[in-house]
Design brief:
The protein is mostly beta strands. It is 10% helix and 27% strand.
Length: 327
């Protein structure tokens, strides 16, 4: 990794993605650059100085001269913050993605006592039925928001699951109004480590397991899910938040967005066959072994990345995969 000097002339540093290099390697004359993306990962917009003594030409000079990262060939590492174009230039707020810890279907169903099994803000995912049964049998009262035990390989355990709400999270705008179509996400991109997990539709666990659009050379699987296809994405009901737990709309799972709302993404995770049948990855990329009483568990910490296709807003969700290994 390196920075490019941006103090003088404008520099264009471009690389092909994994898919682009693969098509170029065919050598059949069909390769053509048709898509590209811009990002501003390095830029600190607080550097804008509207009070610069030398005048308006210097207000954004520090931003324009900020060193920029060289282009990455690894698409997982590049363009975390993609630039997007909007027709409405009078926006005061932009929508975000937010984990919903209020909705009834997202609430923990089992109290988990061994805090050592949990990573801060992680979703706890049992990799097989023995692990699930062992954890849920443990006694205790640890039922904190954001600490969920998600089902195992049978897929019937549709709840609890991951719930992401999208909208304008501000009290300055009327929550009873619908968000504009331009800002409403109707399709999401989900990126996961294909060696570890796959995703499935919580409303149709037996029939709607996600199929990745592609898997790159780093084994990162990319899924696209859309509103109107399965139950992955649904619209959110307008209305002011009420009560101490922000459940203005309990019938719709509870809301966490304070202003106008867009859509909700719901999904759950299934451990890979490799994790269910082997401890190899736990020993090679895992974090070690946790002992709780007479039970031992191996674990792997990872993340899944959720991105809105329209706005480009991205959210990384920490996941801890746990496998019971002995008593």
């Amino acid at each position: 990794m390196a920075f490019l000097d941006n103090s003088g002339d404008i520099i264009l540093d471009a690389v092909l993605t994994d898919a682009g290099r693969k098509r170029l390697a065919r050598g059949d004359g069909t390769f053509k650059v048709s898509k590209y993306a811009f990002g501003d990962d390095e830029i600190d917009y607080n550097s804008y100085n509207a009070g610069h003594l030398s005048g308006s030409a210097y207000f954004d000079l520090e931003i324009l001269q900020t060193p920029v990262l060289e282009a990455f060939t690894n698409n997982r590492s590049s363009l975390k913050y993609r630039l997007t174009s909007l027709t409405n230039n009078n926006l005061l707020y932009l929508p975000i993605l937010k984990i919903n810890e209020v909705g009834t279907t997202a609430a923990p169903t089992t109290a988990i006592t061994p805090t050592s099994l949990l990573s801060t803000d992680s979703f706890l995912v049992s990799t097989d039925k023995d692990t699930y049964d062992t954890i849920t049998a443990l006694d205790g009262t640890l039922a904190l928001k954001g600490k969920y035990i998600i089902g195992h390989q049978t897929l019937q355990l549709a709840t609890p699951h991951i719930m992401i709400d999208q909208g304008l999270d501000t009290i300055e705008l009327d929550a009873s109004q619908n968000m504009s179509a331009e800002l409403t996400e109707r399709q999401y991109m989900i990126e996961v480590d294909n060696r570890l997990v796959t995703i499935y539709d919580v409303a149709n666990p037996d029939t709607t397991t996600g199929s990745p659009s592609f898997i790159d050379d780093d084994q990162i699987a990319t899924y696209f899910v859309s509103q109107g296809v399965g139950s992955w994405v649904e619209g959110l009901t307008p209305g002011d938040l009420t009560g101490t737990d922000n459940t203005a709309d309990p019938a719709n799972g509870g809301n966490v967005i304070s202003g106008p709302r867009g859509t909700r993404l719901q999904l759950s995770l299934q451990s890979s066959e490799f994790l269910r049948g082997s401890i190899y990855l736990f020993d090679t990329i895992g974090g070690g072994t946790i002992t709780v009483g007479s039970d031992s568990f191996k674990y792997i910490d990872t993340t899944i990345k959720i991105s809105g296709v329209s706005t480009g807003y991205a959210l990384d969700i920490p996941i801890r995969l746990v496998k019971w290994v002995s008593t």
